[in-house]
């Protein structure tokens, strides 16, 4: 007797102003988005596939032409509280920010604000679920996305793209 079939996973990469992003997806949902310094030589995703749609939408986002993503995300394997926090975060639109404490309240999980930072670090699909929009009460807070060692700069760039922070003067 065999178990359920494991969906095939494909990957595609996109060069962005904040580094190379790699997207993993099965036939129905995006499973992971991460930054990579390694070359990705997988074939181009099939037209109309989840990978194709995701890479296209990310390209539009980084070009300033997209404010929402309409691809399905796989958040099923996450802890229930983590999943609830990320689903609550999806309600924070482009161009808006929320503090860790506000997101804790919005999620209804009972997690303290400090724990929300750990949840943001567990986000398997940053940018698509905008964890860069979550700020500390006294500043930017952390960010684990971006090329190695570039988390805070990546977060700042994404916040500037969305108009949450003004661009630098010099």
TrEMBL record:
InterPro entries from the UniProt entry: MethylDNA_cys_MeTrfase_DNA-bd, MethylDNA_cys_MeTrfase_DNAb, MethylG_MeTrfase_N, MGMT_N_sf, WH-like_DNA-bd_sf
Ranges where the Methylguanine DNA methyltransferase ribonuclease-like domain occurs: 14-75
Domain Methylated-DNA-[protein]-cysteine S-methyltransferase DNA binding: 82-164
SUPFAM superfamilies referenced in this protein's UniProt entry, alphabetically: Methylated DNA-protein cysteine methyltransferase domain, Methylated DNA-protein cysteine methyltransferase, C-terminal domain
Alphabetic keyword roster: DNA damage
Gene3D superfamilies per UniProt: Methylated DNA-protein cysteine methyltransferase domain, Winged helix-like DNA-binding domain superfamily/Winged helix DNA-binding domain
Top-rank taxon, per record: Bacteria
UniProt cross-references to Pfam families, sorted A to Z: DNA_binding_1, Methyltransf_1N
NCBIfam families cross-referenced by the UniProt entry: ogt
Name of the molecule in the record: Methylated-DNA-[protein]-cysteine S-methyltransferase
